[in-house]
Amino acid sequence: MDQILGWLAHYNIELSTMLATFALVVAAAVLIFLVNRLLKKWLQPAEARLGLRAEDITTIVRVVTAILWFIALLAAFDLWGIGFGGFWTVLVSAATIIGAAFVATWAMVSNVTADLFITIWHPFRLGDTVELLPEKLKGRAIDRNLMFTSLLEEDGSVLQVPNNLFFQKIFRVGRG
Question: Please, are residues 110 and 164 in contact by the beta-carbon 8 Å criterion?
C-alpha cells in the first residue's frame, strides 16, 4: 500500500480524488442502470399508444444512457480540476476543424468525380461553346482539369468553372 501511495504522491495524484472518481463512476453506473429500467418500464406501455417500435425504444434508451455517461464524464473532469470552459473550447474547436476539412474534401471530391463523368459522357468537348443558362455565362471550352473547366469568353477573359457546376446547372452546348 505504501508503494501505491508513494506512486500517487510522485505524480501529484490525491487518493481522495481517485476515490471520489471511483465513487462517481459506481454511482453513475447504478443510476444509469436504474434510469434505463424505469425508462423501459415507462416506454413499454406507451409503445402501442405512441406507435413506437422496439428499435425506437432501444434507441431512446441508448441516447439517454449516452447523455448520462457524458454528464458523469464532465463531473469526473471537474473532480480532476479540468474546467468545463476548456473542455468545451477543445470540443468546439475540434468540431470546427473537422467540419472545415469535410467541406473542403467534399468540394474537391465532387469536382474530381464530375470531371470523371464529363470524360465518360462527353456532354461537351474542347472547342465547343458552353453556356450556363441561369447565369448567362458563355465561352468556348479551352481547357479542363480535375477541378475546373476553362471557358474563353468573347472579350478574351477566361472563366474557371468548377466541374461539379455542370451537374448542378442547366447548360447549353454549341458544337465547333
Answer: yes
